[in-house]
């Protein structure tokens, strides 16, 4: 039984990527997401990433789409100092659960971004479509709308000859 619990615990550690395991694109997307989050006027304090729950990147013709799910916690610094390493996490600081969808193009150009970080206590499982719609728009950013063929997109019919 004990061996099973240890195996399960090790397996759970492998599921959630740590900051060191992020790809270059995922790390860049995290920096873009944090910068975007700290630009919002309601945010007055700096926040620091406490965990990375999910990190995925998908290549597209126009660039790489990165989807991140992570948690932030308030630090003792003001938001303008969010990059400083001396900003320590406040033990009772506010916590946020974030969903970030970032589309990176060539030469580190940001083609689209969506960052949603509700306060963790207010996070009452928002309808998934509410979060997924803006994320899908970011995913299509910079893509040629004519590069995909959808069934029924082109329909031709031949008229019958008159009787």
State the secondary-structure class: alpha+beta
Radius of gyration: 21 Å
Give, in spatial order, the strands making up the sheet with the most strands: 1-2-3-4
Secondary structure: helix percent? 25-40%
SSE order? HHEEEEH
What's the β-strand tally?
4
Q: What does this protein structure show overall?
A:
- With 163 residues, the protein is α+β, with helices and mostly antiparallel strands.
- Helices cover 26% and strands 30% of the residues.
- It has a four-stranded antiparallel β-sheet with strand order 1-2-3-4.
- It is elongated.
Features:
elongated; alpha+beta; 4 strands; 163 residues
What's the structural blueprint in terms of helices and strands?
Elements: H1 2-15, H2 24-39, E1 45-60, E2 63-78, E3 95-104, E4 110-116, H3 128-139
Antiparallel strand pairs: 1-2, 2-3, 3-4
């Amino acid at each position: 039984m004990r061996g099973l619990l240890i195996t399960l615990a090790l397996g759970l550690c492998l599921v959630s990527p740590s900051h060191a395991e992020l790809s270059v694109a995922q790390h860049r997307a995290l920096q873009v997401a944090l910068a975007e989050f700290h630009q919002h006027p309601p945010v007055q304090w700096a926040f620091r990433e406490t965990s990375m729950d999910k990190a995925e990147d998908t290549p597209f013709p126009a660039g790489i789409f990165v989807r991140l799910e992570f948690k932030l916690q308030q630090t003792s610094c003001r938001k303008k100092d969010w990059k400083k390493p001396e900003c320590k996490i406040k033990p009772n600081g506010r916590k946020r659960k974030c969903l970030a969808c970032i589309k990176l193009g060539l030469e580190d150009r940001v083609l689209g971004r969506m960052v949603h970080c509700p306060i963790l206590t207010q996070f009452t499982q928002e309808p998934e479509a509410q979060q997924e719609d803006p994320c899908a728009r970011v995913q299509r950013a910079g893509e040629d709308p004519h590069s995909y063929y959808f069934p029924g997109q082109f329909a031709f019919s031949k008229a019958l000859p008159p009787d």
